[in-house]
Specification:
About 50% of the residues lie in helices and about 10% in strands. With about 500 residues, the protein is mostly helical. The N and C termini lie far apart (about 80 Å).
């Protein structure tokens, strides 16, 4: 059976590269009907934090991923935190020592650094010289018994390490570039390349799917498999994700963590779809919009590309806009509430009436929004109105100065102020009456009306805005929404309309 794992370190937020690795493992497991495992690699005790573990679990769930085994759900091969698996590492380290395939190393950091500098000066690849490799076992045992700090190193044997990578094809490394690397540090903590092999074997991992920054780790892990007589899993190394400038994706390119994407209002469905397209393509090579079911059905390691993937923000926003349009308005209103609350427009505890009204707002402005954190700006004309500011701006000041525009407003405003319960139909009827009275139509008629009502020269359809203004003005929102009458009365006073 296919068994894969996503094994993050709880040392920071889940970034794009790790999120894609988590997603590809999940898609492969679900496509193959296999098991998806979440393992926490927290042996870096200085940097690992419980808050980061909680964050990554929350972020993965937000992305729409679930796991069959893990630290929070258990499973037959637990524990699923490396910090709780120390006995396994020491057991197999002792086995390798007893078999003469590993040895104690007493070299000091100063000695190792001197070796490294010497190799670099000579133009050689730095690697351990093997200074302690031939030390008699009895002497090493005595030093350890005396309490001298010692690491455990693996004796590298064989000329090279080869594997067939599911993405990169045939790969090989000469053994002399590796050197006798550390299995267990002198403080007793296992090194990554040792712990990961023990865990993958004991958890019966069949396929290791990870970033290509781990390619250089693979020969070391193969060396551990060889020393223990175990069959290694299949490897698939995913290409690097680059920014638009073709340098490695980093914070200077914008958001890089799931936490940041969530804060920006990127929908998980959109991000999941986009991450799947970074280094993978469906069989037809052109379909770009795929939901989870379609991704799971089509996913194959055979369609992963070796070339680096370019993170395209425009495409990400395009996908997000698509998914926002497909999202039912009640659900989208609930997602939007925190963004408008932070802007001071509505309450975090908005009632059902306010949320129903918010659906109207979304319907009006959604086409101008690529992510939910843009919503306060798009909806500003609904919540913010200042007639004096309108008359100060170059692009809108003309409605109070141009003779035809003033004529329209001087006829239109009294008609609206006379309405007790304004609807769009009554608004439209008033506009038609003005058309007949002043002889203006089309843009000459509706442009000054739009500016006077919204303060903008363009925007959502007035047919949608009129009910929003009227209903919003009667709701107990955090920020009062001015009705059409309030807006026009304020504008008439500021523009000194007769």
């Amino acid at each position: 059976m296919v068994r894969v794992r996503f094994a993050p370190s709880p040392t920071g937020y889940v970034h794009v590269g790790n999120a894609r690795t988590a997603l590809f493992n999940w898609l492969f497991a679900r496509h193959e009907g296999g098991i998806y495992i979440l393992r926490i690699e927290d042996t870096d005790v200085d940097r690992s934090e419980a808050r980061f573990e909680k964050q990554l679990l929350d972020d993965l769930r937000w992305l729409g991923l679930d796991w069959d085994e893990g630290p929070d759900v258990g499973g037959p091969f637990g524990p699923y935190r490396q910090s709780e698996r120390q006995s396994f590492y020491h057991q197999y380290a002792a086995q390798l020592l007893d078999a003469g395939q590993a040895y104690f190393c007493f070299c000091t950091p100063e000695q190792l650094e001197a070796e490294r500098e010497e190799a670099l000066k000579a133009g050689r690849q730095p690697r351990y010289s093997g200074r302690c490799r031939t030390r008699p076992r009895e002497e090493s045992a005595r030093k350890v018994a005396e309490g001298q700090p010692a690491a455990i190193r693996l004796k590298i044997t064989g000329n090279e390490f080869e594997w067939r990578d599911r993405v990169h094809g045939s790969m090989s490394f000469e053994s002399d570039v590796i050197g006798d690397f550390i299995l267990v540090r002198s403080d007793g903590h296992p090194a990554y390349n040792f712990a990961v092999v023990i865990d993958d074997h004991l958890m019966e991992i069949s396929n290791v799917i990870r970033g290509d920054d781990h390619i250089s780790n693979t020969p070391r892990q193969l060396a551990v498999y060889r020393a223990l007589g175990w069959q290694p899993p299949e490897f698939a190394h995913l290409s690097t994700i680059l920014g638009p400038d073709r340098t490695r994706l980093s914070k200077r390119h914008g958001a890089t963590s799931l936490e940041q994407f969530r804060a920006m209002g990127i929908l998980p469905e959109a991000l999941r779809n986009y991450l799947a397209l970074l280094g993978w393509s469906p069989a037809d090579g052109k379909t770009e919009i795929l939901n989870s079911e379609e991704l799971t059905r089509q996913f194959s390691l055979d369609h992963i590309t070796k070339s680096p993937a370019i993170f395209d923000w425009d495409k990400m926003r395009w996908l997000n806009r698509h998914y926002m349009k497909q999202t039912p308005l009640p659900y989208l209103a609930a997602l939007s509430q925190p963004f408008l609350a932070e802007a001071g427009y509505i309450s975090q505890e908005a009632d059902d009436r306010a949320l129903a009204w918010l659906e109207r707002v979304l319907d009006a402005v959604l086409k101008n929004v690529g992510q939910l954190d843009q919503l306060p700006s798009a909806a500003k004309l609904i919540f913010e109105y200042d007639a004096s500011a309108i008359l100060r701006r170059d692009e809108t000041r003309g409605v109070a100065e141009e003779e035809g525009a003033r004529a329209v407003l001087e006829a239109f405003i009294p008609a609206i102020l006379a309405e007790e319960d304004l609807t769009y139909e009554r608004f439209r009827a008033a506009a038609q009456s003005v058309c007949l009275a002043v002889g203006k139509k089309g843009k000459e008629l509706y442009h000054p009306i739009r500016v006077a009502l919204t303060g903008e020269v363009s925007g959502p359809e007035l047919e949608k805005l009129i009910p929003i203004f009227e209903q919003g003005s009667r709701l107990p929102l955090k920020k009062h929404v001015k009705s059409c009458a309030e807006r026009l009365r304020e504008f008439a006073a500021a523009a000194k309309l007769g």
